[in-house]
Specification:
- GO terms for molecular function: GTP binding.
- It comes from Geotrichum candidum.
- Keywords: Coiled coil, GTP-binding, Nucleotide-binding.
- Belongs to the TRAFAC class TrmE-Era-EngA-EngB-Septin-like GTPase superfamily. Septin GTPase family.
- Helix content is about 50%, strand content about 10%.
- By secondary structure, it is an alpha/beta fold.
- The protein has a domain of about 260 residues: P-loop containing nucleotide triphosphate hydrolases (Rossmann fold, 3-Layer(aba) Sandwich), CATH 3.40.50.300.
- A hairpin with a 5-residue loop joins strand 7 and strand 8.
- Helix 7 packs across helix 8 and helix 11 packs antiparallel against helix 12.
């Protein structure tokens, strides 16, 4: 796998390393992105290229994983997440293949080495570089690379290398080191980070020789010259001395670390599910039990334990990956925050409406009370006027007469 910002020579280095045009240079694609009619996805993409390398009658199959788009956007906070997810997915697929009864057709797609390219700025590692390398170093054999080293003088290159080593040590980044050797006994390992020059062209040098390099006015920067760059050291590590060790360390170190974390999560989830089923009582009386599965996951339950754990396979692991994805969690938190703001806004509106309605209701109730009091007063006045006239109710209806002025006035007031 190659990772790093665009323009650091990742594609050229891969083509130079395999002495073949494994991948087309993406300069045209990068310039075409300036077209306003085209919209590119603002995320890191994963591109896998398969190839075979044959030497001395021995054929080796390689998978080259490119990561275009890494660090190319305004917000690169989580640009490392697709890379990490891809590496974890390959570990997960291999782990699930190991759990199958028939493993004769198992294919190893795990990433055995990651070349992380650092911009030769002279200022050291960027925050994005530190975060990405921290995440990658726990999952894959990390090999830091200083791209386009011919842009630095030899003295500046050594100072920059020292600065990078100090930053890596302070950040707790674990770079590749062989399993059974001391790095000090191997100068190729001790030279990390590798400052490399890459070129797909042949140039003429003194003596009529043709070498891979870059032609400048002051001379030629040779790719395969250890005095000019560390390309030869990098090739020895990847293709010669440590090829098998990269595969072994991936299996024994990084894959086992991933597998252990997954098994612990599956065991914990299985314990929780069995605890829920036991609490349900009669509803799940026939629920399976997990023998010898204790809070300290020792895997002493044998085959029955593995049977229960295997119930939580691909779908459960995929759901767990999504739930733990930093991009998903950030978006989930952002949506929750927006939802909380909207709920609070509408709650305030409803509370304001409720307060307004209560105020209006109180005013209407007061008006009703005042009207009732006024009606009682008018009724009392009517009774008083009728009493002064000597009004006596009769069973028979008297002929209608013109009402008195006082009674007429009272009725007029009531109508008002």
């Amino acid at each position: 796998m190659v990772a790093g910002e665009s323009g650091l020579g990742k594609t050229t280095l891969i083509n130079t390393l395999f002495n073949d045009k494994v991948k087309e240079n993406d300069d045209k694609l990068r310039y075409s992105a300036l077209d306003h009619n085209k919209q590119s996805e603002k995320t890191t993409r994963i591109e896998v290229h398969e190839m075979e390398c044959e030497e001395s009658g021995f054929t080796v199959k390689f998978s080259i994983v490119d990561t275009p788009g890494f660090g190319d956007y305004t917000n690169n906070t989580h640009s490392w997440v697709p890379i990490v997810n891809y590496i974890d997915d390959q570990h997960k697929l291999y782990m699930l293949q190991e759990e199958q009864p028939d493993r004769s057709q198992a294919v190893d797609t795990r990433v055995h080495a990651c070349l992380y390219f650092i911009r030769p700025s002279g200022r050291g590692l960027l925050p994005l570089d530190i975060k990405a390398m921290q995440e990658l170093s726990t999952r894959v054999n990390l090999i830091p690379i200083i791209g386009k080293a011919d842009s630095l003088t030899l003295k500046d290159r050594e100072r920059f290398k020292t600065k990078i080593r100090n930053s890596i040590q302070q950040a707790g980044i674990e770079i590749y080191c062989p399993n059974d050797v001391d790095a000090k006994a191997h100068p190729d390992i001790d030279e990390m980070p590798y400052a490399v020059i890459a070129s797909e062209r042949l140039v003429n040098v003194k003596g009529g020789r043709q070498v891979r390099g870059r032609q400048y006015r002051w001379g030629v920067a040779e790719v395969e010259n250890e005095q000019h760059c560390d390309f030869i050291r990098l090739r020895r590590v990847l293709m010669e001395k440590y090829m098998l060790d990269l595969v072994d360390s991936t299996a024994e170190k990084h894959h086992q670390r991933f597998r252990k974390a997954c098994m612990l999560r599956r065991i914990k989830h299985c314990q929780e599910e069995l605890a829920k089923s036991s609490e349900d009582g009669d509803k799940n009386a026939a629920a399976p039990t997990l023998p010898a599965l204790v809070p300290e996951p020792s895997l002493e339950g044998g085959l029955d334990t593995l049977v229960q754990i295997s119930r939580y396979g691909r779908e459960y692991l995929e759901k767990g990956r999504i739930d733990s994805d930093p991009i998903y969690r950030e978006r989930h938190a952002l949506l929750n925050e927006k939802y909380a703001v909207m709920v609070a806004f509408h709650d305030d509106r409803f509370e304001a409406w409720r307060t307004e309605l209560r105020t209006k209701q109180a005013e209407l109730n007061n008006d009703i009370e005042r009207m009732n009091l006024k009606a009682e007063q008018i009724k009392a006045e009517i009774e008083s006027l009728e009493g002064h006239r000597g009004y006596k109710p009769s069973l028979e209806r008297e002929p209608e007469r013109e009402p008195a002025r006082g009674l007429q006035k009272a009725r007029y007031i009531m109508r008002r």
